[in-house]
Amino acid sequence: MVTTHATDTRTKLIRIFTFLGGIYFFLYFVLPESAVASLGMKAHHEQISNGFIVIGAMALGLGLYNIVRAHGARVVFQRSGWFNSLALLIGLVAMIGATSAQWIENLRNTRDIRSVQVLGEFATRIVEDAKSPPTDRVVPPFAERVSALVRYGEDRVSLIESHTNVSVDAGTNGASSALVGEVRDRIATTRVKLGELKTVSWDQPSDESLSRLTQFSQDAAKLASSYSIIKRSHDAHSTSQKVYDFLFDGLFNQLGSAMFALLGVYIAAAAYRAFRVRTIESGLMMTAAVIVMLGQISFGKEIYEHMPSIRQWLLEVPNSAAFRAIRLGAGVAGLMLAIRMWLSIESKSFSSGRK
Amino acid sequence: MGGRRLIYLLMILAVGLPIVFGISQKPSRLVSAERMYDVVEQVRAQPGEVAMVWFDFGPNTIAENEPQAQVLIEHLFRRRIPVVLLSQYQQAERFLTKIPNEVAKRLESEMPGQQWRYGEAWVNAGFRPGGSIFIQSMVNAADVSKFLGRDVNGMPISHYPNFSAIGGVERVKLVGEITGLVGVFDNIIQFFQKNDYRPTIVHGCTSITIPEAYIFLDSGQLKGLLEGIAGAAWYSEVLKAHFPGSENKELLVTNTALSAAHIVLILLIVLGNIVPLFERRRANHG
């Protein structure tokens, strides 16, 4: 009795949320922009849409759970086909592991690159604050900020140098020697600029000091740009990337392509065995198919000069007319299905079959 | 059984021989690909304006979709139009990284001294779940860079100078959709628009979806179309005519192999209709 009550409540909740979700997007799509804004929908649309995207993304987790549950049980109890399930689970774990390792490495690299990009941005901010002191926040004295900039700059330049040397020692690790040379030139320039910043008195901002800081900011931005490329090139030859490449390019890509390529062979067999001209309609269909194929291939023009033009006409006129009719019919059917789903009268799980 | 094996062998030879011996023929002229070339050529991107290209394909259709993606990206790179790459299809993630990198390397070796770098020539916004809801939200966002947030490396997209302030979707000057999936293509056609904005959409489709794509080309919702490998091959020829350094020999060989397979297919259809006739006649005489 309690279970039935809980099921009824859940069914009602699902129906209510389905209806509200459907009516929201329907109204947002059909109402004029002014009406959408006055109802307050425009202001919150991005957040609401993101909410729906998050719910949709949950399906991935649900799918993952179902795969592990269904195939895990088959492996554990050694049911028929358990070996295929094991292969699937190993593939799943290997791909998740490789992708996660690559993702973590990517984030680490991004953090390093970002820490270098901050250098130029910091210099720019010091100049901006010196020109028009901020009123909404307290900033340390000018000299103190420049001193911090120099210290941080030296630290980052050393980091880039060590990473660049690693790339050179490992045979540039994918980064071209020109790129390594470019990074080294920029390191040298930035070091010189940092040295110059140390020699200037920074008690009060002057035009000359601000100009030097601006110049330093531009040099630091160039260094960060080159560094990001060398870092990504290095990343492309990391172990996690190699494992990912092997799994995706070496296995998944090839198996996926092979599966699709089999279609070509089946179509050839079907063309010989089943494409028989027995009626006028099938004759028309075969003629159209042959013309479209000949019009698209390299040899078609050599058979008949106007073959591509005839193909074009077939696709633009009779084909478009037929496909529009099909799409129109499918569209009306889709609309009916959507209305039935919106009102929760389509799915059996909402209504019958439970009681 | 024997007949089927012979058919399989014929297909393998038709596809394999041109690839093994590197035989290439000039592809057939396709008007839809020429229209697409003209459309990309006419794009005038002011600073801050971008092209947005969706790679919505996986390993199963790379034979057709990858060459299409390559020629479109090559053309956009040659024209120095900043490209935002993204996908509605999770299996495309790898190609979002690989294809622009390869094209950039090829162009850099063709034109020493010139550079196409990540963050300047293109950004990779990665796989975006949500399909039509995601597109509707992006179209209505005040700033596309902020809406997309971070790139695939976790870096804020607004941090890259060419993509720092794209602004509203009106600043997307060209939308490219490379896919063999009709559903994701429909998402772009239906939802990548708003009251006062209709984007210029170009599309690369697989051969099987050409008939469906033509209705949008005919209505003007699509401005250009790459029809399977043949479309990419002709686009590549047009590119070569305008940029003599551009060459994609592999694509032409693949297209020739496919053409040979089509010829075999046509012969099989003809044989499939003639042989039973002879057999019936022989049986009647017997």
Polypeptide structure, described:
The complex is a heterodimer of chains A (355) and B (286). Chain A is an all-alpha fold and 355 residues long. Chain A contains eleven helices and no strands. The longest helix of chain A has 50 residues. Chain A starts with a helix and ends in a 13-residue tail after the last helix. About 1% of the residues of chain A have low confidence. By secondary structure, chain B is of the alpha/beta class. Chain B has a single domain, classed as Rossmann fold (3-Layer(aba) Sandwich), CATH 3.40.50. Chain B has ten helices and six strands, in the order ααβαβαβααβαβαβαα. The interface between A and B is large, with 68 and 69 residues.
H/E element string of chain A?
Answer: HHHHHHHHHHH
Secondary-structure element string of chain B: HHEHEHEHHEHEHEHH
Low-confidence stretches of chain B: none
Strand content of chain B: 5-15%
Number of strands of chain A: 0
Number of domains of chain B: 1
Distance between the termini of chain A: 11 Å
Poorly predicted parts of chain A: 170-174
Number of helices of chain A: 11
How is the topology of this model organized?
The complex is a heterodimer of chains A (355) and B (286).
Chain A: H1 2-30, H2 33-38, H3 41-76, H4 82-131, H5 142-169, H6 177-199, H7 207-235, H8 239-274, H9 280-296, H10 300-303, H11 307-342
Helix pairs in contact in A: 3-4, 4-5, 4-7, 4-8, 5-6, 5-7, 6-7, 9-11
Chain B: H1 2-21, H2 31-42, E1 50-56, H3 62-78, E2 83-87, H4 93-110, E3 122-127, H5 132-140, H6 144-148, E4 172-179, H7 182-191, E5 201-205, H8 210-219, E6 224-227, H9 228-242, H10 249-285
Parallel strand pairs in B: 1-2, 1-4, 2-3, 4-5, 5-6
Summarize the structure.
By secondary structure, chain A is mainly alpha-helical. In chain A, 83% of the residues lie in helices and 0% in strands.
Q: Which features would summarize this protein structure in a list?
A:
heterodimer, A: 355 residues, Four Helix Bundle (Hemerythrin (Met), subunit A), 83% helix, extended, B: 286 residues, alpha/beta, 10 helices, elongated
